[in-house]
Design goal:
The chain has 96 residues and is mainly alpha-helical. Helices cover 82% and strands 4% of the residues.
Length: 96
């Protein structure tokens, strides 16, 4: 991890710590619990950021596939239909 990334991480954790402190002020809360809460909030933000990249890629692929028409139907519709047929065959095979 480079220094800039560590600094950014520490800055964000400090912001979260301030938010948690403001929420817990006067409640006499446990310090260990507060620290864990800060870490969980930070990790949650990181996971959301990681999750957004694949979602963007899938949306781009979806938009790309919608462009192409074969037999007056776009490739995405045909692909989803064929996937549905495969799933149905697998389900029928498992029922036997």
């Amino acid at each position: 991890m480079d220094l800039e990334e560590k600094a950014t991480k520490l800055e964000r954790k400090a912001e979260i710590a301030e938010m948690v402190y403001d929420m817990a002020q006067g409640s006499g809360g446990n310090e260990v619990l507060k620290d864990k809460f800060i870490d969980v909030i930070y990790e949650n933000e990181q996971l959301k950021a990681k999750n957004s990249k694949p979602r963007e890629t899938l949306n781009k692929a979806y938009d790309f596939m919608k462009q192409f028409l074969v037999d007056r139907r776009n490739l995405l519709e045909r692909f989803l239909e064929s996937v549905g047929q495969v799933v149905e065959k697998v389900r029928n095979g498992l029922r036997r």
